[in-house]
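Hi support team,

I submitted a single chain yesterday and got back a structure, but I'm not sure I'm reading the token output correctly. Could someone confirm the output below corresponds to the sequence I sent? I've pasted both exactly as they appear in my results page.

Thanks,
R.
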Amino acid sequence: MKITIYWVTRDWELIRKLRDKYKIPQYTTVNGLTEAEVNEETLNNLRKGEPKYLIIRKIEQSDKSVEYAKRNAIEKAGYTEEVLQGSEEEGQQPGG
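Hi R., thanks for writing in. Yes, this is the structure output for that exact sequence:
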């Protein structure tokens, strides 16, 4: 998912460490914002630092994260993608 971060802290060493750890881009706009593509786990870890170090201002689902969530749901349910595609073509529910 795509997030927009506003850096509350002006501790540039801390910001650098967070960027390195979570693979956040090294740029910041004049308004103090950074956009990044992150996964759910990274988002949860970054939220632990709010509002002391940063504020997550916007969260958008990207096509990648939607596809990832769909695949995880399929795997958890025990279906393969082929099974789901075959049942969609036949107009039936998977497993039934």
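A quick pointer for reading it: The chain is about 45% helix and 20% strand. Let us know if anything else looks off.

Best,
Support desk
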